[in-house]
Amino acid sequence: MVNTPGVRVLHARNLITPPTASVPYRGEFGSALAEVLGRHVEVTEIEDERGFYRAFSEEIRRARRSLWLWSPWVATRLNSLLPDLRAAADRGVRINVFIRADTDKLQKQETNQVLIAELRQVVDTVVPVYEMHQKIVVIDEQTVLLGSLNSLSQKSTREIMLTMRGGHFARKLLEHEHAATFADPPSCGRCGGDEIEIRRYKKDDWVWRCYAAACKTTPKGGTNAWNQKIRLARGR
């Protein structure tokens, strides 16, 4: 606490507040200091594959507004997470999930396709991304879980995940991953379907691509998938 005669008191607790809280009086000095501290990231937990899911479930239960999830593969691990994800969705949490596309040899297995269908029934969006490998969770634009663990498929491998808190960092990470844009795929411009994946081609061009077999198959047996360049924010 800064307390100088004749000067309004600046409490340390007023320098860092949750994104949804009303901003207390800080003054010019306090506002500048709050801006610097707002970029601070606190590492609150370091979990291995045994401790992660307890922490992950607790974070899902705390979620109030949004949950962003990048997990390349979907497997039987999803079964233990669906109740918490469903409860979060029921209380109004918007859940967006990015996974590998069906062209991946593991993802296209029948048992995993059934699980993906169940996931789609619970969350707001599931967007396939060709050859994605990120393992990220962002909750309420404040909490980030980041590391090596595939949260929807991990079984027995040794892993590490960090839990970090900091709104500035969380929002920068979402911006880096083009989260808002990528979570809103269009319908196919040819067949009108919603089987849309994201691919990244040469020269850093991101595109929407229809993966519906009937749509991309030509009369001569070749393939010619519908593509549309993704418009990203300037500078990305």
Strand and helix layout:
Elements: H1 27-37, E1 42-48, H2 52-62, E2 66-70, H3 78-90, E3 94-100, H4 110-122, E4 125-129, E5 136-139, E6 143-147, E7 160-165, H5 167-176, H6 179-182, E8 196-200, E9 206-210, H7 213-216, E10 227-229
Parallel strand pairs: 2-3, 3-4
Antiparallel strand pairs: 1-7, 2-5, 5-6, 6-7, 8-9, 9-10
Q: Any guess at the CATH architecture of the largest domain?
A: 2-Layer Sandwich
Helical fraction: 25-40%
Low-confidence parts, pLDDT < 50 over ≥5 residues? none
Assess the beta-strand content as a share of residues: 15-25%
**What's the helix count?**
7
Characterise this structure.
The protein has 236 residues and is an alpha+beta fold. It has 2 domains: 44-179, Endonuclease, Chain A; 185-236, no CATH class. 28% of the residues lie in helices and 22% in strands. The chain has helices at 27-37, 52-62, 78-90, 110-122, 167-176, 179-182, 213-216, and strands at residues 42-48, 66-70, 94-100, 125-129, 136-139, 143-147, 160-165, 196-200, 206-210, 227-229. The chain has a 7-stranded mixed beta sheet, with helices on both faces. A 3-stranded antiparallel beta sheet has the order 8-9-10, with no helix packed on it. β8 and β9 (206-210) form a beta hairpin. The longest helix is centred in the middle third of the chain and has 13 residues, at 78-90. The protein is globular, with a radius of gyration of 21 Å.
